[in-house]
Structures are given as structure tokens and as C-alpha cells.
């Protein structure tokens, strides 16, 4: 479960697993906005205040804010879904 004020893990997974070619412009913009908002929340929330689940979720989604590719992006690359 994600921490209060953070994007749910289910929403993140749904956005990541749907191929970009199947998303509308509105969905692309919404994903970008939600991702940026969640990334900002990740940066502002001290590690010491994050739940264990949130720490794991941030690690998997790349919200450590150090410009590394996320595991989701790497998986999409491997499946040919990032284009």
C-alpha cells in the first residue's frame, strides 16, 4: 500500500503496463502529471518517514530521483513496448 498523498501502486502498474501506442493524448498527459507529482512527493518525503512498502515501491518505480531507468522501463524495453 502506498503512503498517504502518493500515487497508488495499482495506478502506477496500470499506466506502466499499457503500451504507449494504445494510450490517448489525455492518458499520456495524465500519466506524466501523476508521475511528476508523485516524484515530487517522493523527493519531499524523508526516507525515514516512508513505510517499507513505499520504499520498495519507490525503488521499483525509479522514484529515487537519480535519473536511473526504472525496472518497469527496462522490462518494457525487453518486451519492445517502449517506442
From TrEMBL:
Basic and acidic residues bias: start-end ranges: 9-35, 66-77
Start-end of Polar residues biased regions: 36-65
Record-linked Pfam families: HSP9_HSP12
UniProt-annotated stretches for the region Disordered: 1-83
Coiled coil: none
InterPro entries linked to this entry: HSP9_HSP12
Top-level taxon of the source organism: Eukaryota
Name under which the protein is recorded: Chaperone/heat shock protein Hsp12
Species of the source: Dendrothele bispora (strain CBS 962.96)
Taxonomic placement: Eukaryota, Fungi, Dikarya, Basidiomycota, Agaricomycotina
Amino acid at each position: 500500500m502506498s503512503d498517504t498523498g502518493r500515487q497508488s501502486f495499482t495506478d502506477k502498474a496500470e499506466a506502466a503496463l499499457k503500451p504507449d501506442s494504445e494510450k490517448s493524448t489525455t492518458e499520456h498527459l495524465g500519466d506524466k502529471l501523476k508521475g511528476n507529482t508523485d516524484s515530487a512527493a517522493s523527493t519531499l518525503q524523508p526516507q525515514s518517514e516512508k513505510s517499507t512498502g513505499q520504499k520498495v515501491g519507490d525503488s521499483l518505480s525509479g522514484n529515487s530521483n537519480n535519473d536511473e531507468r526504472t525496472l518497469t522501463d527496462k522490462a518494457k524495453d525487453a518486451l519492445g513496448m517502449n517506442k
